[in-house]
Amino acid sequence: MTKRGPKPGLFTILTELIGQKFGPNNQLEVLAVNPPIACRQRTMKVHCAECAKDPEMFGDGIYNFNAVSVKNKSAICGCNSRYAFSEAQNVVGSHGCVKKGA
Ligand SMILES: [Zn+2]
């Protein structure tokens, strides 16, 4: 069965975001584009320098955000005052859709 991937060019666009910073304090840095996952939602690995300062709350400060929200620079992490439960939709790492590491 052949599945159609993301439109040609999207991966390139996302890859070009690697290394860019965004967020209210430029605290979010794009680390990598994750491979497509079972839920077929492209995600990107983003590090938050502010969240990383509070490992008890936010662990290593690395999030897997929906690629679209990263591209639109609208991804919201734990240290953002606008972070709310509804925004959890943007963070797929927390409910098992994306497994970190192994
Ligand atoms: Zn943060």
Give the C-alpha Rg.
Answer: 13 Å
Share of helix, binned: 10-25%
Instruction: Give the averaged pLDDT, no decimals.
Output: 80
Question: Within the largest sheet, what's the order of strands?
Answer: 1-2-3-4
Separation, N- and C-terminal Cα atoms: 27 Å
Q: How many domain units?
A: 1
Q: Count of DSSP helices?
A: 3
Element string (H = helix, E = strand): HEEEHEH
Broad structural category: alpha+beta
- Beta-strand content estimate: 15-25%
Characterize the overall form. globular
Short characterization:
The longest helix is centred in the N-terminal third of the chain and has 6 residues, at 10-15.
Secondary-structure blueprint:
Blueprint: H1 10-15, E1 21-22, E2 28-33, E3 43-48, H2 55-58, E4 62-66, H3 67-71
Antiparallel strand pairs: 1-2, 2-3, 3-4
The structure holds zinc ion.
Characterise the protein shown here:
With 102 residues, the protein is α+β, with helices and mostly antiparallel strands. It has one domain. Helix content is 15%, strand content 19%. It has three helices and four strands, in the order αβββαβα. The protein has helices at 10-15, 55-58, 67-71, and strands at 21-22, 28-33, 43-48, 62-66. A four-stranded antiparallel sheet has the order 1-2-3-4. It is globular and about 45 Å long. Residues 85-89 and 93-102 have low confidence and may be disordered. The chain binds zinc ion.
